[in-house]
Every structure is written in C-alpha cells, then in structure tokens.
Amino acid sequence: MLPWLLAAALLAVVVLTAPVLGRHLYAVFDDRPQPAWDRWLTPLESGLLRWIGETGRPADSPWGYLLPLLISNALFGLVALALLVWQPTWLNPLGFGGLRWDLALHTTLSFLTNTDQQHLIPEQSLGNLAQLGAMQFLMFVSAATGLAVGFAVIRGFSGRPLGNFYRDLLRALSRVLIPASLLLALFLLVSGVPMTLASPLEITTLEGGQQWLPRGPIALFEAIKQLGENGGGFVSANAAHPYENPTLLTNLVSTWAMLIIPAATIDAFGRFVGNRRQSSLLLVLVFGLLIAGAVVAMAAEQAGNPLLSSWISGGNLQGKELRFGTGLTGLYATVTTGTMTGAVNGAIDAAMPLTILTALFNLFLQVVFGGQGTGMAYLLVFALLAVFLTGLMVGRTPEFLGRKVEKAQVVWASLVLLIHPLFVLIPAALTLAGGPSWAGISNPGSHGISQVVYEYASAAANNGSGLEGLGDGTPWWNLSASLSLLGGRYLPIAALVALADGVRRKPALEPSPGTLRTDTGLFTGVTAVVLVILGALTFFPVLALGPIAEALTLAS
Amino acid sequence: MPTSTRVLFPRMPRGPRQERRYLERPRQQGLLQRAIVEAFRKLDPRLAVANPVMFVVWCGTVLCLALTIEPRLLDAAAGARERGFNALISLTLLATLLFANFAEALAEGRGKAQADALRRTQARTQARRQLPDGSIELVDSSALRRGDVVLVQGGDVIPADGEVIAGVASVDESAITGESAPVLKEAGSDVAGSVTGGTRILSDQLTLRISADPGKGFIDRMIALVEGAERSKTPNEIALTVLLAVLTQVFLIAVATLSPVAGFLQKPPSVVTLVALLVALIPTTIGGLLSAIGIAGMDRVAQFNVIATSGRAVEACGDVNTLVLDKTGTITLGNRLAEEFLPVGGYSSAELAVVAYGASCFDQTPEGRSIVRLAEKLGAALPFEPASASGIDFSARTRMSGSDSADGIEFRKGAVDAIKGFVRSRGGVVPDQLDQCFEQVSRLGGTPLAVCRGAELYGVIYLKDIIKPGIRERFDQLRRMGIRTVMLTGDNPITAGVIAREAGVDDFIAEATPEDKIAVIQQEQKLGKLVAMTGDGSNDAPALAQANVGVAMNSGTQAAKEAANMVDLDSDPTKLIDIVTIGKQLLITRGALTTFSIANDIAKYFAILPALFAGVGLQALNVMRLASPQSAILSAMVFNALIIPALVPLALKGVKFRPLSAEQLLRRNLLVYGAGGVVAPFIGIKLIDLAIGALRLI
Amino acid sequence: MSFTAQLLRGVRVTLVLWLLTVVVITLPMLGLARLVAPEAANGSLLQRDGVVVGSRLIGQRFAAGRYLQGRPAGEPNLAASNPELAARVAAAASRLELAGISRPAPDLLQDSASGVDPHISLEAARQQLPRLARERGLTMGQLQRLLRQSQEGPLAMQAIEPVVNVLRFNLALDQLAAAPASEPPAS
Predict the structure, then answer these.
(1) Is B240 on the interface with A (CB under 8 A)?
(2) I need a surface site. Which of A132, A370, B19, B509 has the fewest CB within 10 A?
(3) Residue C117 placed within a domain
(4) Residue of A53, A206, A325 lying closest to C12 (CB–CB)
(5) What range defines the domain where residue C173 resides?
(6) Which chain C residue has the Cα nearest residue A555?
(7) pLDDT tens digit string along A483-530?
(8) Could you tell me which residues come within 8 angstroms of residue B506 by beta carbon, excluding any fewer than 6 positions away?
C-alpha cells in the first residue's frame, strides 16, 4: 500500500508544482518581467552575449536557429571528446588513461545528445576532471539545448518568432537549470550524497576484504542528471547506488526532479498560446499515459516472478534495492523511460517483462513527458497529426491553435515518425542478424531481442537506460549506437524547428463554430489514440517478439 | 455614406430541406464493363507507380507470383508444397490491386460518360464571321479567335462562347443546363448578355463577340473537369498522400527488419507471409480509394450542375467560414411587388396612385409593372398621354426614375432621400409624415419608394420583399456547420435588418455599393476567414475574384464567369450551400476511410502475428481462434482485398454529411469509422477463416 | 554572416558555458558541502579506532557466519525468464537451508541492483539471529536490541519498509562481542 500512496503523493506534488515552474519558464522564454531573485542576472547575460558577439535578435529562418545550435553542439562535443581521449592526470587520482576512440566517441555523443547511454563503468574509467569537464558540462548544455528547442517550437506554434538560440541557451542555464540544480544538489547533499574532490577511498572491510568507495562531486552531478533528463550515472549502478540515491526520500525527490521540468514546459505552453485549458488537457493526457504505465510496471514488479514461486513469494527483488522496494522501482523505471532521463534505481534487465514492455512503449512514444524540451515538441507533432486526421473527419482543412495544417506541416511531422523505425529497427535487425555473441546478448530467448531493441530505442529516443546485461562495449555497438544517438537527436530537432517556423508564418484564424476545438476531452482522447497507434503500432511486431512473448512464456 | 449595421440573431429551429431539381445525367450502358477493362489496364507499372501505397502492393504481388512459380527462389529450403499457399496469397494481392483500380476506373467512367455527352454538342459548325469592313465570311468554328465578331441566326449552333453585342433572341441552353425552356438573350444586359458555345439559337438573330479561343471555351472546361483529365490533386489530398506514403515506409521498415529479428528465435517467416503482413498493415483501403474519392467528388459537383475550375476550389468550399450573399435573387425572390400606397401631406390614396402610375408607366422592371398593376386595381388612370411623354431611366447616381409629361410635369419615384432632395431642389416642402411612412414600411421589411409630382410629395409606395421559402432552414444548417452568412443589400438599414432577421442571416450590410462587397470580403479575409460569394453582374467580377470561392451564375456576364472559380449552370445562388456540403464530404470521406484503414491494423496484427511466430509462444494472441496459421494469414488478406469493393459505394457517394457541430460530427465519425474500423475486421476475418475452413482451401 | 564568424561565436559560447557549468558553480558547491554537511560530503564514512572501515551508506560483503550477512551481489541483470536465475535462487536457497534457514527471506535470494545494498529486511535479519547467537555466544535478546538500534525505515524516509543496515549492525555486533568481559549484557 505504501508504495502506491507515495506514488500518488509524488504525482500530486508534480501537478501542484508544475504551474509554479511553468509560470517561471513562461517568464524566462517569453521575456516577461523577471522575479526579483534573478533580475540581477540580466546585465550579466547581456554582457556575456555581447562578448560572444551575439545580438540576441530572433532568428528569421529555421536555419538561423539551427546553425548556431549545430555549431555550438559540435564544439561542446569536441571539448568533451578531447577530455575523454586524453584524460589528463589532473584531478584524476587513480590515474585512469584515455578511453578507446570508439568508446570515447559513443560516450561523448551519448551525453551531447542528452541520452547518457553508458558503455563504460565510469568509476573505473573516468577521473573527476572528465566527470566534471566532459560529463557534467555536457549534461548542462544538452539539457539547455533541448529546452531551447522546445521553447523555439512552442514559440512557433504560438505564432511568435523562433527566438535566438544562444540567448535561449544561456537563459535556460542561468535561470532554470543552474538554480534548480544548485537547490537540488543542496538537498541531496544533506541527504547523504557525497560532494568532494577527494580521491575515491579504498578501505578494508570488517571481514578484511578490499572495497572502493566511489565518492566524488556527486551531489551536483546527480542534480543536473535528474533535472536535465540526462540520466548518466556518476557510478555504473546509477541511481541504484547508495551514493547517488541514498534514501527513500532522495529517491522520491529524484523521481519528482525527472518530471518537473517537462511537466512545467507543458504548462508554459498553455501560457504561450493563451489557452491553459489546452495545456491542462495535454497534461492530463500525458499523466494518463504515465499513470497507466506506472500501474502496469508497479503491479508487475509487486506480483513477482512466477518462475521463482517455489522459493519466493512476493515481489521481484532481483536487481532491486531494498530501500526502494519493488513498487517504487517499477515507478522509477516508468518515469525514467517516459521522461527520457534514463537514470535507473534498479536493473531494468531483471524487471518483469511487463515493466520492460512499459519502458519500451515509453521509448517508442517519446511523449510520456519525453525529452527535455523535445518531449513537448513531439507532443505537438502528435497533436498536429491528430488534428489532421480529425480535421478531415469533420470536413475542414484541419486547424491547430488557429493555424491551418497543410502539406508542409504533415511532411515534417511524418518525418519525425520515420526516425524511430530508421534508427531503431534497422540497426537492431543488423545486430541480431549477427547472432547472440556478436550482439552481446546475455539473456536467452525473447529477452535477447528486448536487450538489442531496447539499446537502440534508448539511443534513438535519447533516453540512455538499458538492459544492462548486454555486452555493449564493442566497437560495433559504440558506433552503431552513435548513429542512432545522432539520428534520434538532430534530425527531429531540425524537422521540429522547420515545422514550427512553417506554422508561425501562417495567418492566425479566429475560431468559428465549425472549427474543431482541440481543448476538449474528446480531442485529447483522440490524440491519445493517435499517439498509441502511430507511435507504437509500427513496433508491435518487435514488442510481440520481445517482452510480450517473454511475458506469455512466464505466464504459461 | 453607406452605413453598415451589424446584427446577430439567435439560432432558429430546423425546418425541412428544400427539394431541388437535378439534371438527369446520360446513363451509359457498359459503365461496369469499361471499368473492369480499365482495372486491368491500370496494372501497367507506369500507371501503378503514381500511387505509392498501391505500388507497394504491386511489387508484393509480382514477388509472390514469382515465388508461386518457383518457391525456392529466395529460400532453398522452401518446400514445393508452399506453392499452393503462395498462389492463394498472390491471387488475393492481385485482387486487391484490381479492386483499387476498378474503384478508380468506375469513378473516372462516370465522368467520361458525361464528357462524351458534352462532346457531342461540340460538333464543328460553320460560323459567319464579320470582318472589320463589315463583310461576312464563312469560317470553321475552330478558326474563331477571341475578339472575332460573328452573326448567328435562328437554328444555328452558337460556334463559341461570346457576348451579345446586338440583337435579341431566344436560346436553347439545354445541352449544358438540361433546362428545356429557352432563355432570352439580349445585348447590354448583365444577366442575359452572354452565350455559350454549343447551345442553339431558336429564333431571330444575334451579333456576338467571341470571348474564348477554341478548346478554352466553357464546354471544353466542363469536359476536362468531368473527365478528370487535368485533375490535379488538392492540397489536403497531397498532405494525406504524404502521410500515407510515410506510414507505408514505416511499415516497410518494420516488416523488412522482422526477418532477422524473428530469425533470432526461430526459422524466419517466409517472404510470402512477410509480404502478406506488409500489405495488411499499409493503408491499402484508403490508398486504393483515395483517387476515386477525389474524382467522385468532382463528379458530384458536376451533377449539381456546377462547373468548378479545379478540385482545389471544391475543397476550399468545405473550409468556407463566411458566405457573402446578395439579398435580391438569393435570399428574396428577385421581384419586389408593390403592396400598398401610403399617402402623405393630405393626399388620398387614389391621388397617390395616379401619380405613382405616372411615374411608373415607362418602368418595365417587375417592380414598376407591379406598381402599375396596383394603381390600376385602385382605379387610377394615367394622368398624361403616354405617347407624348418621355421616360426617365433609373440610374445608380440619381436613384430615381419617372416620366416627364408633354406639359413638362415631372413624375418621379425613387429612394426616399433621393426624392426628398429632388422635391427640395424644386422648391417643395417635405412633410414630416414622410419619415413616419418610411419607418413604417422599413419595419415591415419592405422597401419604401417616395413618389412626387414636381415639387409636391404625394407619399410612399410599399414594395414588399418576398423571402424565398426554405431559405431560413438553409441558413440554420450553415450556422450549425460553422458558416456565417452576410447579406448585402442596397436597402436602407431598417429594411435590411428586418429581412435579415426574417431570413435568419447572421449579419448584413445595408446600402451596400459594389465596392462594399470587396471591402466586406477583404475584412473577413483579414480575420483569416475563407469567404465564398455568389454574383452575376459584371460589377461583381472583382469581388468574385477576391473571394476564396466565387460562384458566378450562368445567366451572368462573361466577366463574372471568368473571375469566378465556379459557374452555376442553373443560376441558383443557394446552391453554394450544396457545394459547401460536397467540399466537406470530400474531406470527411478521406478522413473517415483513413481512420478506418489504420484502425483495421489492430485486428490484422492479431490475425497474422500469432500465425507468423507460432514458434515463439504467441498463440495466446490468437484471440480470434483462427484455424491455422496459413488460414489466418489468408483470411486477413482476403478481408483486406474485399474491404475495398465493399467501400467503393461509400467512396463514390461520399460519407453522408450532417449539419452538426464539429464536435458532434467527430464523435459520430469516430464511432462509425474508428471504433467500427477496429471491430469490423475482427468479425470479417473470423468469418472468412470459417469459410476457408468450410471450403477446405488450405 | 560568415561561417567563420559563426564558428567564433561558437567557440566563445563553449568557453563561457564550460567555465560556468564546470568551474563557477561546482567550486562554491564544494565549499558549501564542507560547511553544510561535511560528513555526507566526504562519503558518510564510518570509523573504528580512527580507521575508516566503510560507509554508512554502502553495503559490504559478509560471508562469515559470525556476521549478519547482506544481500547477494552477483548478477543483477539476469532476466526474469532466464533459467540461470531460477538455478541461482535455488542454489542460494539450498545453501541457506543448509545453514539452518528453512525458507529464506526473498531479499537474501535475489541480487541487489547496486551490489552494495546496505540493507536487508527485518525478516532476513531475524532468520540469521539464531546463527549469530550461536557463533557469538550472545542471547537473542541482545541481538534483538541490536537489531532495533540499526533499523532504518519509512518513518525517517530512509527505506520503503523497515530494514536493517547490515554494516552498522555488524559494527555494533563487534563492539558488543568485544565488550562482554567488562560489561555484562543488560537484561
């Protein structure tokens, strides 16, 4: 009972806090009057922008927004790649050497794309300089890039100019991500998360064994990892490790931290378009999908593994931490895959097939809050497609938020639908064709398919979690997953910005009684169905062969 | 200064829909035979490639046929006994293609039959061309060019579209309108000043200035349109095609990658079964019917005796937010009739009747004649000898007409303020009572005409406007569809308001000038609205061009017809409402069948996936309890093929449009085509599976 | 604008943001950590006789019968359907059965996620008390009291169910075992 109560309370807190942050996001990204506490940042920001050589004028074409994005992201990646390939000895007490090039490339792209898929064991390969200078740096800027894109798209849909990328990037950091991370870090710190540059400690255990305590500057790292929907662990065990997630309370707050910015982004969207009913219904839609997934996963984990029933009654504790229990680990798995965070507080590989099904489903949909900023944009894409189909069904050229949906919009929106099949199914098929040892599969049968498909789905959706039994440290995995990471990040971003720019250039129409309103329960329900059908129908065969077949096997 | 008054009225109850007359179309024997032949002809890959969804089916069919001939083509281990199954799948795929082709051919066939009938009117004729020096030469009608002047006489076929520049004649236009009553054509008249090539002049003689080069005339446009020869896809159709193509691509990837993924667990499924899965998943239902829906939509427009210049215009009709309508002829019967004489300044009704008679005796308009009739009924006689008097024509500037008798007495009738000005200019006094009469008539929805004799004002004629029966119900329908109606009238605001309220329009502009029409349209468009308007006069041409949808009356001027994107052959302005319905129907049919098509996939998955992956333990997903894997796949394919001909009637007729709010309409269509699309295939596939079992096909 | 100019902007942005997100905010946070929670910041270390013997948060491996044993840390990524999982659970169950625990608590049979789960369930701890009493020559009452002292749970939002911190328990156990000569166990 307690896990369900806590889960309900947690979601209630998200619902209550989302409008607070939503108002702030609206103020930040629509240049509304700032609250007193961050007004002092304005001169600093404009000073920095001036030094950079940026006027701050809004881009007048999609390219004007995308070019700085691509250039700066490439440079961010280069800095991180350099730090990983030539790991200096400074702040690196254990003297870790540089990473192999393919691993360094994968790790860089993974963090640059806000994915944080890790094919390495960080505490055994990265010194503090790499952790801070490459990983923490990329976690901040990739989240800020996502937020900037999200709000550029929102601006487009609300008929505003797209905005200025560098200005958005800077403000996303200075007014949202950094202050929030500092606050969360402070909380984590007092809850027991280490924050030190001292060397990891080797100790002698009570029984005389040796143990490394992987301490480090974790608190701040953990904060941006959760808030920025990054998910890359300071240690390999990620949020299952007591140094990253020491108590039940930190676990709940970390779960909240994954949800709050994307939920607030949807709320801010409503403020941008001047229709909070619209955003509230979108929130209801997304929460509905989240809750449905959470119920499936929590119930599946609590019900436990029927194959172990001769020895064990009760939930599935394999690959779980006792302080979180089965239910809240199921919830965490749902939230982390829904929000594209990818942090884990238990092994998803050892989770029940229905939990894996939920996780994969979330990865395919990409909107159960979805990535930082981009999740909102994906939601708009699906709403747009729903508008297109329903608009036809009422006999009018479809309109969304007062703007007509025409060929160009359908083209860009459909393009987004193509990304996942391209970057998930094709590499997964190639990898599986190589056989289990080539694919690095560690669990037999249908689960092996899930492992491979999950890895690419996680990469292409920029999530980062994985069925971690998979032997994914090979050059094939590093390079093929790198392609999925890039394809799943920058192609949709380009399509979304182009889509938004096209929408904003259309004349705004007054709603008439014949206009199909999108801020109704009916339309929200239709959007949910369109989401599930267009987002998941394609993947039904692999879902059937993977987790569904596994679940049926377990049940029989 | 024209004043404009805007009034909004509450909703009115719904009434019976007005019955209309439709043109009987030539019934072509062998329509079906022709469509069947065409269905095979369209198997040509060069034609098939135009439709991406069906082209995938085409490729799959070829692949399956090859595998029927040689089952070991792609898989050396395949047994020869798979040949029978491969052959059955190939046949269902071929049937799917043929059914889709048949639907398209059937839709095209109906248009072609009409085009043939029209073409028969186009037989070449000899024309008498008048040369600049006045001499006449005989030329072939195909040699006529725009600007040529020709003479036509009773019995001739009019050689090309043109404007009457001299003469009066009656013309039989039944070839294009189906209306057998002859139409009077005369020069200088807005309404009757243009003729159409292919129609026949019955008597007398006309001089015409040709207005269209050969092959670009009205009938040529009509033929091209109904034949679908120059059918360009409409914007929404293109957007939908893109979405369907992307979905097809997505499913192509999903199915192509399935082989290695499944191969990880079991023997990979055979190529034929994968092709079957692919064809089942891609939206073949809508893909196969899409072009038929478009062609049939245009055909329906033509059946309403409306010629649209493009499918785009018809589709735009579905989006129209505002309808700008002339009051006269559209909302009210064209003719206002004199109802009563209201004398002022101490004159009696009889005295007023005499003066009114005098002012109207030269007025040949229906209004003028009705005044004369009313005056005669009251026993009045003409106050002067008509032969020696002269008539004063109405002009938009003076806004009055009348007669001058031989002894120089001016009899005038006209707009109240115009007559007031006239009386004052002659040194007369306007009695206060006049304004009361003016108001009294206006409040009744009538048009007041003031009457004077020289400087003496006699009173007011009450011209009664008669609102067309059933018009109010049509406006109610429009309102439910979310379309606002704006009435334009030259009447004063009070009269206009009364008529607007009685007819149930949403808004009106009184004392409107032709410039006001354009202004109203531009103003609405500035708010992002799509505006449709009807017009006939040549001064309507700019407004017709400005409007998103302009419907010209066939009786109208050539200029109006050219500026419009539709021409109504019956010259019935209320027909715009029917066109709007057809435009909406077009979109709804596409949307509904797309939804149906995609919703079908759920059942198809449940039929095919357990059959495909029997070795993986997915038997539990066989919720339909289909007999065997092969029977399951075949059943899904047969369903997929049969659903196309089953929906052809719906595609050709269009989903029935109901004037409901968007929300109600969506709820309804979702229930029928969404939920229906989920459920129908479960039942259909199960039944086919039972039939296959009973026939021992597998 | 030229590509070079764009590139230059990019370089400057990278420099600014790197300093901001790596140096400018991390250093104050490190300082604040020393001030606010020096013990946690350093890893919540536990010391005995001035020597660090572990972290309060991090579980240790205990194999000897004289210590309370924690959760197995083996292969957290074994899938639910993997036959190896059932085999491992069966082996662990029979091993524990041999050690006198007839139906071991589930957390003793299933691997933790981190491999360093500091906790076991109260049931798992109680099942081990008879062995500890035997090995250490302590009464069950003493061990029960110890159990209560090293218990963590939902009230303090430490864990979803009442659990025992194994390392803290074992440290206290060692202390108790070292003491009895001088100090008789309280009743």
Answers:
(1) yes
(2) B19
(3) yes
(4) A53
(5) 43-178
(6) C81
(7) 999 999 999 999 999 999 999 998 887 777 677 889 999 999 999 998
(8) B8, B9, B475, B479, B484, B485, B486
Cα of A439 to nearest chain B Cα, Å: 11
Q: For the segment B332-367, what is each residue's pLDDT rounded down to a tens digit?
A: 776 778 888 889 888 888 889 989 888 888 887 778
The string of pLDDT tens digits covering residues A339-371 is: 999 999 999 999 999 999 999 999 999 999 999
pLDDT digits (tens, 9 = 90+) for C132-151: 999 999 999 999 999 999 99
What's the average model confidence in pLDDT over A218-227? 97
Same domain, C155 and C128: yes
Q: Chain A neighbours among C 15-74 (CB < 8 Å)?
A: 16-18, 20-22, 25-26, 29-30, 32-33, 36-37, 40-45, 51-64, 67, 71
Q: Which residues from chain C sit within 8 angstroms of residue A133, using beta carbons? A: 18, 22
By the 8 A CB rule, do A440 and A471 touch? Answer: yes
Asked if the C-beta of C89 comes within 8 angstroms of chain A's C-beta atoms, the answer is yes
Co-location of C30 and C100 in the same domain: no
Nearest-neighbour CA in chain A from B47: distance (Å): 24
pLDDT at B20: 33
Containing B473, the helix (H) or strand (E) segment is: helix B471-480
A267 Cα to chain B: minimum distance (Å) = 25
CB half-sphere exposure, A17, CA atoms < 13 A: 14
Query: Which of A172-186, B299-313, B444-458, B615-629 has the weakest average pLDDT?
Result: B299-313
Three-state SS letters, B164-227: EEECEEEEECHHHHCCCCCEEEECCCCCCCEECCCCEECCCEEEEEECCCCCCCHHHHHHHHHH
Contacting residues of A for B613, CB less than 8 Å apart:
544-545, 549
Question: Nearest-5° angle of CA B11, CA B13, CA B15?
Answer: 135
Considering only the C-alpha atoms of chain B, give the largest distance between any 2 of them, rounded to a whole number of Å: 115
Q: Does C7 touch chain A (CB under 8 A)?
A: yes
Is residue C29 in some structural domain?
A: yes
Q: What is the full DSSP assignment across A173-242? A: IIIIIHHHHHHHHHHHHHTT-----SPPEEEE-TTS-EEEE--SSHHHHHHHHHHTT----SSTTGGGST
Number of domains within chain C: 2
The model's confidence at residue C94, banded by pLDDT at 50, 70 and 90, is: very high
Same domain, C37 and C67: no
User: Which chains sit next to C, with 3 or more Cβ pairs under 8 A?
Assistant: A
Same domain, yes or no: C48 and C127: yes
Is C18 within a domain? yes
Say what the ipTM of the complex is: 0.95
Catalytic residues of B: 326
What b/e sequence results for A91-120 when a residue is b if at least 16 CB atoms lie within 10 Å of its CB, and e otherwise?
bbeeebebbbebbbbbbbbbbbbbbbbbbb
Decide: helix, strand or coil at residue C101. Answer: coil
Helices then strands, each counted (H, E), chain B: 24, 22
Q: How many helices (H) and strands (E) does chain C have?
A: 8, 5
Sort out which chain A residues have CB atoms less than 8 A from B528's CB and list them: 402, 507-510
Q: Are B416 and B460 in contact (CB under 8 A)?
A: yes
Are B152 and B205 a contacting pair, CB within 8 Å?
yes
> How far, rounded to the nearest angstrom, does the alpha carbon of residue A59 sit from its chain's CA centroid?
26
Residues in chain B closer than 8 A to A422 (CB atoms): 253
Same domain, C122 and C147: yes
> Is C138 a domain residue?
yes
For the segment B390-399, the average pLDDT, to the nearest whole number, is: 79
In chain C, residues with a C-beta closer than 8 Å to the C-beta of A549 are: none
- Percent residues over pLDDT 70 in chain B: 89
Same domain, C121 and C79: yes
Distance from CA of A515 to the nearest CA of C (A): 43
Distances (CA, A) of B281 to A375, A539, B603: 27, 12, 10
Residues C30 and C117 in one domain: no
